[in-house]
Amino acid sequence: MKNLILWILLILSTGAAAQHTTFLQQGRIEFEKKQNVHAMLDEMWAGEESSWKELQKKEMPKFKTAYFDLYFSQHTTSYKPGRENPDNYKLRETPGEANVVYTDLDNHESIAQKKAFEQLFLVKDSVREIKWKITDETRKIAGFDCRRANAIIMDSIYVVAFYTDIIVTPGGPESFTGLPGMILGLALPHEHITWFATKVLVEDIKPGTLKPPAKGKVVNNDRLKEVMNGAIKDWGNYGKVYIKAIML
């Protein structure tokens, strides 16, 4: 009888805890994006002895940190540059630093504003399909318990993501989506880039906050890649690294 009572109490307490779980459907997430610029320079100038490269590495910090805000409401997200980092004032702008990405997950549509070589593009396309493999590994990010998932995109880019199902919107930074919850941590180990949430704010999202960008030359992802290949096809490794960064 004593064991039966304990078992009933356990069920009741578990049910009460589940009832108090809060699932977030709208708010704002700040992401810290870090790039290992020394590693990117090494990749761009691989196989070449470059005094310019070594001089650049001496004059700039190893990592460049930028901040982005991801606004979300139900199945719509808007990712855009956030607060400025004064440490970046003397550094060159890197590919993707000015990206604005609007995602309509219900209609599987993405509209991204991207700048490449001082030209602004408006990339309208379907949401990228990512074949995730969810693992048992977990990690706490910005106070949320997250589960790891792995994937390959663009044929060769290895992706590690950590998502939480407490935030029901299946989105993430840049164009990364498709997991059963919000991606709060993202790493591209071989591309030397990470995005990790620093804070999650429960905010009422005004309709205007989730408006898609509207400026730029309209292209889709295939056309953008063609334009980039045509512009820097003779730039060797530098061109390859730049195109990969733009197409993320």
How would you describe the overall organization of this protein?
- This protein has 248 residues and is α+β, with helices and mostly antiparallel strands.
- The protein has 5 helices and 12 strands.
- Helix 2 packs across helix 5 and helix 4 runs antiparallel to helix 5.
- The longest helix has 18 residues.
What does the secondary structure layout of this molecule look like, with pairings?
Layout: H1 2-19, E1 26-36, H2 37-44, H3 51-59, E2 63-73, E3 76-81, E4 100-104, E5 109-116, E6 119-126, E7 133-141, E8 144-153, E9 157-164, E10 182-188, E11 193-201, E12 217-219, H4 221-232, H5 236-247
Parallel strand pairs: 6-12
Antiparallel strand pairs: 1-2, 1-11, 2-3, 3-4, 4-5, 5-6, 7-8, 8-9, 9-10, 10-11
Helix pairs in contact: 2-5, 4-5
Provide a quick synopsis of the model:
The chain is of the alpha+beta class and 248 residues long. The protein is built from five helices and twelve strands. It has helices at residues 2-19, 37-44, 51-59, 221-232, 236-247; strands at 26-36, 63-73, 76-81, 100-104, 109-116, 119-126, 133-141, 144-153, 157-164, 182-188, 193-201, 217-219.
Shape: globular
Unreliable parts: 1-20
Tell me the number of strands.
12
So how many helices? 5
Broad structural category: alpha+beta
**What's the average pLDDT?**
85
- End-to-end separation in angstroms reads 60 Å
| Widest sheet: strand ordering | 7-8-9-10-11-1-2-3-4-5-6-12
CATH architecture descriptor text: Clam
What portion of residues is helical? 10-25%
Would you tell me which CATH topology applies? outer membrane lipoprotein receptor (LolB), chain A
Total of domains: 1
Strand proportion, as a percent range, falls in 35-45%
Return the string of H and E elements. Answer: HEHHEEEEEEEEEEEHH
Rg measurement, Å: 21 Å
CATH class category name = Mainly Beta
Biggest beta sheet summary: 12 strands, mixed
